[in-house]
Amino acid sequence: MPRNTSINSVLIIGSGPIVIGQACEFDYSGSQAALSLKEEGITVSIINSNPATIMTDKVIADHVYLLPLTCESIEKILQEQQIDAVLPTMGGQTALNLCIEASNLGLWEKYNVQVIGVDVAAIEKTENREEFRQLMIDIGVGVAPSKIANSFLEGKEAAQIIGFPLVIRPSYTLAGTGGGFVHRKEDFDAALNRGLHASPTHEVLVEQAVLGWKEFELELLRDSNDNVIIICTIENFDPMGIHTGDSITVAPGMTLSDKCYQDMRNQAIRMMRSIGNFAGGCNVQFSVNPENEDIIAIEINPRVSRSSALASKATGYPIAKIAAKLAIGYNLDELQNQITKTTSAYFEPTLDYVIVKIPRFNFDKFKGANKELGLQMKAVGEVMSIGRTFIEALQKACQSLETNRWGLGADGRQLRNLEEIMDSLEHPSGDRVFHIKDAFELGVPLESIRKATRIDKWFLVQIQELVHLETELRRYQLNNIPRDFFLTLKQKGYSDAQISWLLGNVTEDEVYARRKELDINRVYKMVDTCAAEFSAKTPYYYSTFEDENESVISDKKKIVVLGSGPNRIGQGIEFDYSCVHGLIAAKEAGFEAIMINCNPETVSTDFNMADKLYFEPVFWEHVREIIELEKPEGVIVQLGGQTALKMAERLEALGVKIIGTSFSDMDLAEDRGRFSDLLKDLDIPYPKYGVATSAEEALKVANEVGYPVLVRPSYVLGGQGMSIVINDEDLEKAVVNLLKNLPGNHILIDHFLDRAEEAESDSICDGEDVHIIGMMEHIEPAGIHSGDSSAVLPPFSLSKAVQDQMEAYSIKLAKALNVKGLLNIQFAVKGEKVYVIEANPRASRTVPFIAKAYDAPYINIATKIMLGVNKLKDFTIERKLTGYAIKEPVFSFSKFPEVDKTLGPEMKSTGEAIRFIKDLQDPFFRELYSQKSMFLNAQ
């Protein structure tokens, strides 16, 4: 059936600010869906309050509404635009819940808007735990014994009937919020109360806990002819009991028998067909008894999910893009396979490689947090890796995490305390996979590890083999390792740094040189969705160690853009936004744009965003070999946050050109001590400071500059390790702790300006001229990290004299640092005097906010200046803001109720929203302003 021609305008509902459990995977899905609909000539409107995403950019949609996700906002859009249909399946639980609320208010009916991609009744069936349970029973799909409870008394009765252990699942919540396991009767009352309060309908499912069973996810697509295909089967490395977002996952499934797999497929298809008459995507989760392969359904989500982004990147099949076309009436056999360009979309991808996803945690930002993993998701991001085997992909994923691991162990960071290790295996945290390897190294039997973790034996055998390989390697020296054995190590995912550490007396560069002598080279394979049965047209690659290299090198001038790796607090989706615009600008400037990144949630890792995509760890060895293969004109590190910046020194040493501001100038800004010396030379006010490398030096500096002092390490992002201290005792503790976690780092000690206001500027410099793209005034005072502060654009209470000083210092610093591209500067304002706190000659988290507020393509402009193809004078830059824009930080403290929520110099927010006001009399602003007065008076 051809597309529904009555649909000419579609509204896509976004997911709002990034929170734990709902991150930028929905930015990816929404962006892909919008572009897919635009291909069909459909006018696309988007509502989303998140300024950091590419989804809310004019390159994605025809009309972008940066508004709160409320029914009032929805009605405003319906009054302004002639909307024919709404697509709520691309914005996670937030979008589905808003769609239901608007439906209950009669908005869709009032404005004659179709709901496409899902049936509202289907949402009710899947989110209402009792309806879902009864539906599964009706269609013959197994479910765990359970009872619904709408009151405390009903919950107690259910527990008495079912027996412990139990799991509590609240209705209509995201990422397991309010849910959890209850092992003992004594803990039940508190857990039940928590679940009932978390559910907006005050409803929970009290269910038998199937702890230790295997967990699987299937990603499905269905068209209006009721054709259903399975895009990807994902197996959880961790057994039931850990939220899928916190679990290591593997695709395709590794330990399923064919009989069980076929049974699971049939049940998933039956489930999808039972939940309403709609066309689109769906995610189904199952649990499998490892003893007899009995299957029970956990849940079904009639929308794209976190796993949909992973499955899209894993298979090359653009789930959200195809789902959007199915929603407007197309059938699967009428659509083209986007990878081969010759076959239809009515096929199931075949993988001749293995995918591993590992979640990224940020427990260091939540001091005192319970790190044990359970039903409530706690991860802030994730990485995905591709290898020819599970173990190769697992090692590559460990290298991608940005946690200073060089692979799965073999890097000097192993645990050696058996009691700690066994406790970690039984009470899983984010490091458990590393501790499994540590346990094997200490000689713990495989069966003991299996009983402690309940992880399938097949996975444990793969990890155990690494220990045997490392024992074998220690028999050799670098110059006499047999070539076949060296090749085996590389095929098992070992980095040169790991091999160097295991040998003990050689450097990483020496290992690299030796394997090159032995002609052991990384080659690149194409992700083609069909195991090379048909030729692929899309240049999407991963590396391994074999003979044939499938990455054909063109003779075009090339630019490599380094991505930012996994999302984490302090480095999030704003850098994906920057990378996407960098790729677009590089292509517009006539370069072949090459992307290197390992984050499956991002738009920058979409197969058709760059001219060439290497889905690889942003890890030195991998980046180095791609650059040696491609021989680019240079590498852009300004757009990928601290991850990319950390590569700059080694790239320069390798003779690779850094596009834009040079490494030496970026390093000058990063080195807090040298930067303060520069401020002194430029006669720019700054707080008194000193640099220390020990607690003794720190005490001396602090007493010279005067308490209170701000203690911070150099070369960090998101305020990592920063603290404000008021006496010698606290200072000594802070410095010792920093040097323990960041050995060898210089500690900067600044006099802290109490009762100071904070402000910042962002600018673009072409080496000669400087353009201030925006100046913001913070609501919270100096001492609270800028990422955790509400900020108002333009400043609302800073005098002209203060703003003139900010502008003058921005221009002076841009020129002194020889900036080519972007520069962010943070200021403290006390009285009418402006002090410079820090400068960052790179993309910052504020640039997307300013770009959305002023409706200006700042990253695109900055990239072309970095590339040397344009000067500032070539652009006419207009500001379209009427009134003020406010950046509101968003937190995920509900995931960690036990932690201190006090804000300080270390960033804790997970995302942000944007709000526009016409004038300073706006009630929302007046409330914020009263907070500012309170803060300043209280200090």
Automatic annotation (TrEMBL):
Superkingdom per UniProt: Bacteria
Reactions listed under catalytic activity: hydrogencarbonate + NH4(+) + 2 ATP = carbamoyl phosphate + 2 ADP + phosphate + 2 H(+)
Entries under Pfam families matching the protein: CPSase_L_D1, CPSase_L_D2, CPSase_L_D3
Gene3D superfamilies per record: 3.40.50.20, ATP-grasp fold, A domain (3.30.1490.20), ATP-grasp fold, B domain (3.30.470.20), Carbamoyl-phosphate synthetase, large subunit oligomerisation domain (1.10.1030.10)
Keyword match ATP-binding: yes
Name listed for the protein in its UniProt record: carbamoyl-phosphate synthase (ammonia)
Single Gene Ontology MF annotation: carbamoyl-phosphate synthase (glutamine-hydrolyzing) activity
InterPro entries: ATP-grasp, ATP_grasp_subdomain_1, CarbamoylP_synth_lsu_oligo_sf, CPAse_ATP-bd, CPSase_dom, CPSase_lsu, CPSase_lsu_oligo, CPSase_preATP-grasp
E.C. number(s) listed in UniProt: 6.3.4.16
Keyword Transit peptide: no
